[in-house]
Amino acid sequence: MGASPALGQSRFDGWASAIIAADWRTSDGQPIEAFDNARRDLTSGFLAAGFRRADMVDYTLRPDAEPSTSAEAAVEGFAEVAARATRGCFLYVSSHGSPQGINFGPTSRVSPTSMARLVNEVCGERPTVVVVSACFSGVFVDGLSGPNRMVMTAAKRDRASFGCGEDAVYPYYDGCVIQSLPTATDFIALANAARTCVKAREEAEGLTPASEPQVFIGPNMQLLLPTLRFNRPES
Predict the structure, then answer these.
(1) Phi and psi based region of residue 52 (left: phi greater than 0; alpha: psi -120 to 50; beta: remaining)
(2) Measuring CA to CA, which residue among 25, 64, 65, 62 is closest to residue 165?
(3) Helix axis angle, 34-49 relative to 172-180, nearest 10°?
(4) Which residue, among 144, 138, 141, 119, has the nearest Cα to 213 in the 3D structure?
(5) Which one has a higher pLDDT value, 148 or 2?
């Protein structure tokens, strides 16, 4: 059994991370806070779990934000932090999606092919976790899959996800990740807890068809992820 991290260290030291709220609108184009609320609280949650602020970027791509970040600048920022923090990669994007891809800022769309190219270029062969929270986000699984990859999506490739209305605090999947983070031991436990949470909420509200969040874990990550335990405050 490997040695535990020294006091003050995390198993995610040296991991680059990026959390991006890539849309800010309802499906009718009205402004909402749900994506930015998720970005803010996901950032706090993953910092508490052991990711380092110095190696993490978080962006909102809404054009009226202060400061405003362009799609290009968000990609460049992730690439810059990944160039110096080379032990692993973590990317979380929350947005609206379609079978063709996800919205990425006011006018851009990221297709599954483009996302796969981005992650390949930025993260290479290092251990990598990618979360895509959007309708139809299962379309990203095939392109992102690999031996050193874990992929989590908010829905199957042919299903919508829920929670992007004007009264939403978070998209449902993001809210379930935020809810599950404080007690999850690692990414595998987090993915399972988030799926259970989404299923329970959809059933309670009678939402159909179910979004059915997806999880892919490559063979190398199946061995590594249980050793990448989240930090937890001392009881």
Answers:
(1) beta
(2) 25
(3) 20
(4) 138
(5) 148
Contact 89, 122 (CB under 8 A): yes
Q: Which residue is it, tokens 């110096």? A: 84
Convert the pLDDT of each residue in 163-215 to its tens digit. Answer: 988 889 999 999 999 999 999 999 999 999 999 999 999 999 999 999 999 99
Angle at 41 between CA 202 and CA 57, to 5 degrees: 125
Q: Work out the average pLDDT over 41-69.
A: 95
Tokens 């993915």 map to which residue?
Answer: 191
Q: Check whether 1 has a pLDDT greater than 70.
A: no
In one-letter notation, the amino acid at residue 104 is: F
Strands 56-60 and 15-21, bridge-based pairing: parallel
DSSP letter string, 127-175: -EEEEEESTTGGGGHHHH--TTEEEEESS-TT------STT-SS-HHHH
Average pLDDT of 45-52?
98
Q: Which pTM was predicted? A: 0.95
HSE on the CB side for 141, CA within 13 Å?
17
